[in-house]
């Protein structure tokens, strides 16, 4: 009976050791999907290590929020609501995007933008460019 307990104990320890695999091959990568429609929520800057965010001034009161839609085929649609001519008129620009590790590169109307992906969750996408400008998007 004592030998059976020892054998069962060793088997349990062996199974526990096998099931606890510490695989760091995805270290630094996120599992949240980048593809989807993201509405701009906040903008800001980083200065001296301090981050300052405000509500996105480009969002017009009474209109839907401006957005960026990243599609699975690597196209990007940027939507801008503007009430200059008609109330809440939607203007869109289309381009392409790519992701390399934690960098998001977009080319829209011939303008290339490279931003670091600071945070990516199921509900928030936070981007920062080389100048320290920050954009926070939500789904």
From TrEMBL:
InterPro entries: Lipocalin-like
Residue ranges of domain Lipocalin-like in the record: 34-127
Organism superkingdom: Bacteria
One Pfam entry name: Lipocalin_4
This protein's name: Lipocalin-like domain-containing protein
Organism of derivation: Flavobacterium terrigena
């Amino acid at each position: 009976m004592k030998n059976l307990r020892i054998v069962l104990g060793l088997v349990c320890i062996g199974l526990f050791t096998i099931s606890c695999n510490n695989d760091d091959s995805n270290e630094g990568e996120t599992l949240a999907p980048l593809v989807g429609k993201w509405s701009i929520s906040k903008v800001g800057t980083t200065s001296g290590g301090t981050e300052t965010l405000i509500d996105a001034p480009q969002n017009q009161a009474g209109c839907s929020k401006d957005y960026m839609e990243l599609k699975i085929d690597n196209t990007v649609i940027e939507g801008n609501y503007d009430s200059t001519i008609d109330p809440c008129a939607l203007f869109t620009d289309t381009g392409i995007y790519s992701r390399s590790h934690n960098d998001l590169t977009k080319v829209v109307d011939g303008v290339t933008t490279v931003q670091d992906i600071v945070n990516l969750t199921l509900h928030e996408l936070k981007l920062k460019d080389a100048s320290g400008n920050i954009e926070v998007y939500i789904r």
